UniProtKB/TrEMBL annotation:
<keyword id="KW-0411">Iron-sulfur</keyword>
<keyword id="KW-0408">Iron</keyword>
<dbReference type="InterPro" id="IPR002792">
    <property type="entry name" value="TRAM_dom"/>
</dbReference>
<feature type="binding site">
    <location>
        <position position="162"/>
    </location>
    <ligand>
        <name>[4Fe-4S] cluster 2</name>
    </ligand>
</feature>
<protein>
    <recommendedName>
        <fullName>Ribosomal protein uS12 methylthiotransferase RimO</fullName>
        <ecNumber>2.8.4.4</ecNumber>
    </recommendedName>
</protein>
<dbReference type="Pfam" id="PF18693">
    <property type="entry name" value="TRAM_2"/>
</dbReference>
<dbReference type="InterPro" id="IPR013848">
    <property type="entry name" value="Methylthiotransferase_N"/>
</dbReference>
<comment type="function">
    <text>Catalyzes the methylthiolation of an aspartic acid residue of ribosomal protein uS12.</text>
</comment>
<dbReference type="GO" id="GO:0051539">
    <property type="term" value="F:4 iron, 4 sulfur cluster binding"/>
</dbReference>
<feature type="domain" description="Radical SAM core">
    <location>
        <begin position="141"/>
        <end position="371"/>
    </location>
</feature>
<feature type="binding site">
    <location>
        <position position="82"/>
    </location>
    <ligand>
        <name>[4Fe-4S] cluster 1</name>
    </ligand>
</feature>
<dbReference type="GO" id="GO:0046872">
    <property type="term" value="F:metal ion binding"/>
</dbReference>
<dbReference type="GO" id="GO:0103039">
    <property type="term" value="F:protein methylthiotransferase activity"/>
</dbReference>
<dbReference type="InterPro" id="IPR006638">
    <property type="entry name" value="Elp3/MiaA/NifB-like_rSAM"/>
</dbReference>
<keyword id="KW-0689">Ribosomal protein</keyword>
<feature type="binding site">
    <location>
        <position position="159"/>
    </location>
    <ligand>
        <name>[4Fe-4S] cluster 2</name>
    </ligand>
</feature>
<keyword id="KW-0963">Cytoplasm</keyword>
Length: 444
C-alpha cells in the first residue's frame, strides 16, 4: 500500500503526541507519511477528550478533515484517541464521513483496518479495553532537540474532575529496561533533551516494582552519553520524596525544573477534588525544593470555578500565588466531565465567574513572571538554540520547557548555529520571555 499517502493531525497533550509518533512508526514502512493533509489519501486525527474545549477542538478538526474528502485527495478518514475511546459510537454517528474509529488501545490495528476498509468499504469501529501499554518504534515529530519519553500509562489517582482513568485505565509502568532502550535510540537520532511524561510521573514503578522508583530511572537515563537534559513533568506534590529532590539537586543532567500540577490550595476544594494532599503538604514540599535546589524553576496548573469554590477559597488561591511566586503557571476553568464524581456536585460556578477568576490569577501571574524575569538580568544560562529569525536566535535554558514556557531571544553573531548549546547573558526581561547576548568567558 506504499502508493497511499498518510497525513496525521495530533491534538491534545504530549502523551497523545507520543501515541501519534508510535502510530507514525507503525505506518512509515507501508505508507508515505506526509505533513500536508491536503495531499493525503488517508487522514488520521488523534483526538483529545480531556475537557470540554479540547473535545470541541477535536470535533471541529475532524469536521475540517471531512471536508478534505470533498475538496482534496482524502479517501479514508480515521479518528482515534481519547475522544473516540469515550464516545466511539456517538462520534461515528455524529460525523458519518469518518470511515474508521479507533480507541487508545487500538493504534496497532490501524494498518489492518485501513486494508480492510479498502477491501470492504465498510465503516470500522474498534475501541477495546486493554492493560497493555502502547509501545513501538516512533517517528519523532518534535525535531532534533527534544523528545517526550512516556514512562507509564493510565492513572490511579481518581481525582473527581478527571476522566483519564476511565479512558486510559489504571496506572501501568513501563520497565526501566524498555525505557532506557528507547531513550538510547532517541539519543542516537541526535535528540539532546528527554522530557519525562506520564499522567503521574512520581508514581512510576509502584505497580511493576512494588515501590516508587523514579529516582532510579532518572539516574539510569542520565548515564546515556548523548543526552544533555532530562526534564520532569507532572510530579504530584504528595509523591515528591526527599530521594527525588536529592536526585534533582545532585544529578547534573536533571534540569533544575519541575512541573507540579497542584490544581488548588484550599483544603476545602482539594478534598472535593479528591486530591490526596493538603495545603500544608504542598507548601512543605515546595519549601523543600527551594531550599535543596535554590535555582529550581517550578511550574504548576490551577483549576478555578470548581463546584463549591467560594470567594474565600479563591482568595486563598490568589494569596498562595502571590506568596509562592511560581515561575510558570497555567489556569484552567473547571469543565464538568461526563461520568466523573464532580459532575454530580452542587453549587456550580457560573461561566462568567470562572472567566473572571481565571483572568485574575493570570493577570497576577503576569506581573510575577515579569518581576521574576527582571531578577535574571545579568545572569548567564546555558541555552539550546532551536530556531532563528532575521534578528535573533530563539532558544531555551534548562528552566524552560518547550511550548508552554518562555523563550530566550539571542542577538545574532557569526559562528553560532541552531542546535548548539551556547552561554547567554540576559540583558532584558519581558513578561514571559528574555533577551540576551552570547557570553564570552573572558569578557569583563
Amino acid at each position: 500500500m506504499a502508493k497511499y499517502k498518510v497525513g496525521i493531525v495530533s491534538l491534545g497533550c504530549d502523551k497523545n503526541r507520543v501515541d501519534t509518533e508510535i502510530l507514525l512508526g507503525s505506518l512509515k514502512n507501508k505508507f508515505e507519511i506526509i505533513s500536508d493533509p491536503k495531499e493525503a489519501h488517508i487522514i488520521v486525527v488523534n483526538t483529545c477528550g480531556f475537557i470540554e474545549s479540547s473535545k470541541q477542538e477535536s470535533i471541529n478538526t475532524i469536521l475540517e478533515m471531512a471536508e478534505y474528502k470533498k475538496n482534496y485527495k482524502c479517501e479514508v478518514l480515521i479518528a482515534t484517541g481519547c475522544l473516540t475511546q469515550r464516545y466511539s459510537k456517538e462520534i461515528a454517528e455524529l460525523i458519518p464521513e469518518i470511515d474508521i474509529v479507533l480507541g487508545v488501545n487500538n493504534y496497532k490495528d490501524v494498518e489492518d483496518c485501513i486494508r480492510d476498509f479498502y477491501e470492504n468499504k465498510q465503516k470500522i469501529i474498534l475501541c477495546s479495553n486493554s492493560n497493555e501499554i502502547n509501545e513501538g518504534e516512533r517517528v519523532i515529530s518534535t525535531g532534533n532537540n527534544y523528545a517526550y519519553l512516556r514512562i507509564g500509562e493510565g492513572c490511579n489517582n481518581n481525582c473527581t474532575y478527571c476522566a483519564i482513568p476511565k479512558i486510559r485505565g489504571s496506572y501501568r509502568s513501563r520497565s526501566i529496561e524498555h525505557i532506557v532502550e528507547e531513550a538510547s535510540s532517541i539519543a542516537k537520532m541526535g535528540v539532546k533533551e528527554l522530557i519525562i511524561v506520564a499522567q503521574d510521573t512520581t508514581m512510576y514503578g509502584i505497580d511493576l516494582y512494588k515501590k516508587k522508583v523514579l529516582p532510579d530511572l532518572l539516574n539510569r537515563l542520565s548515564q546515556i552519553d548523548d543526552i544533555e537534559w532530562i526534564r520532569l513533568l507532572y510530579c504530584y506534590p504528595e509523591e515528591i520524596t526527599d530521594e527525588l529532590i536529592e536526585v534533582i539537586a545532585s544529578n547534573k543532567k536533571i534540569c533544575k525544573y519541575i512541573d507540579i500540577p497542584i490544581q488548588h490550595i484550599s483544603n476545602n476544594i482539594l478534598k472535593k477534588m479528591g486530591r490526596r494532599g493538603t495545603k500544608e503538604q504542598i507548601v512543605e514540599v515546595i519549601n523543600k525544593l527551594k531550599k535543596k535546589v535554590p535555582e529550581i524553576t517550578i511550574r504548576t496548573t490551577f483549576i478555578v470555578g470548581f463546584p463549591g469554590e467560594t470567594e474565600e477559597d479563591f482568595n486563598e488561591l490568589k494569596e498562595f500565588t502571590e506568596n509562592i511566586k511560581f515561575d510558570n503557571l497555567g489556569v484552567f476553568r473547571y469543565s464538568a466531565e461526563e461520568g466523573t464524581a464532580a459532575e454530580r456536585l452542587n453549587n456550580k460556578i457560573s461561566d462568567e465567574i470562572k472567566i473572571q477568576r481565571q483572568n485574575e490569577i493570570m493577570k497576577l501571574q503576569q506581573q510575577i513572571s515579569y518581576n521574576n524575569n527582571k531578577g535574571k538580568i545579568g545572569m548567564v544560562y546555558n541555552t539550546l538554540l532551536e530556531d532563528e529569525n532575521e534578528e535573533y536566535y530563539i532558544g531555551r535554558s534548562q528552566h524552560m520547557a518547550p511550548d508552554v514556557d518562555g523563550i530566550i531571544y539571542v542577538s545574532k553573531v557569526k559562528g553560532i548555529n541552531k542546535g548548539e548549546f551556547v552561554k547567554i547573558k540576559i540583558r532584558e526581561a519581558l513578561e514571559y520571555d528574555l533577551i540576551g547576548d552570547v557570553y564570552y568567558e573572558s569578557s569583563k
